[in-house]
Amino acid sequence: MQKVNIQEKLASFSDHWNPRIVGELNGQHVKATKLKGEFIWHHHDHEDELFLVIKGKLKMEFREKTVEVNPGEFIIVPRGVEHRPVADEEVELLLFEPASTLNTGNVENERTRKELEKI
Amino acid sequence: MQKVNIQEKLASFSDHWNPRIVGELNGQHVKATKLKGEFIWHHHDHEDELFLVIKGKLKMEFREKTVEVNPGEFIIVPRGVEHRPVADEEVELLLFEPASTLNTGNVENERTRKELEKI
Lengths: 119, 119
Hints:
The structure is a homodimer. By secondary structure, chain A is mainly beta. Chain A has 1 helix and 8 strands; from the N terminus they run E-H-E-E-E-E-E-E-E.
């Protein structure tokens, strides 16, 4: 049983939109990632996703509204709900979601990451 | 889709060893709780548990060692592993674990909490 220091994990990489696996339990992954700019609109057919912000301001866009999520806050996006994460400045966050979750959900394009590194 | 502010949730109660549900996804619960003192030795037959420390120093005792978990750090306790959380001073934390998880695991006594409040 090793503890995980979130800042140390985040400090070990610098690219954006490329989640790393930092924990695994009950078929779920804990991922650390950095965001900057706009992602793509997508949804997940079978997975709910939790975004826990560590640094920066995450703008989670939905079709009807945008929710700003600040450090120390999290938002759960239920399966089936279209969303687009936007980070005007760099955002650092943890994701908590099923191991089956693909970052781009129902969309596959050049931003899709299928093989995630474990750090 | 509502965001959750962790500090606001933690500020809304003051008792110890009584987790509140603050989020639900994929059959898992996110719980907020405060600890002070020593808990009981127990394990969970079917659930892995994640402890993410928000405030204070959590001492997670295992039979062979103790791991200190500080704010910004988490530890995953795999199913079947005996453990005892100890908080010399008050600790505030988030738990991520299956909705089926009982706080005292394989033990049922006066510290068991079966009906958790959603806040």
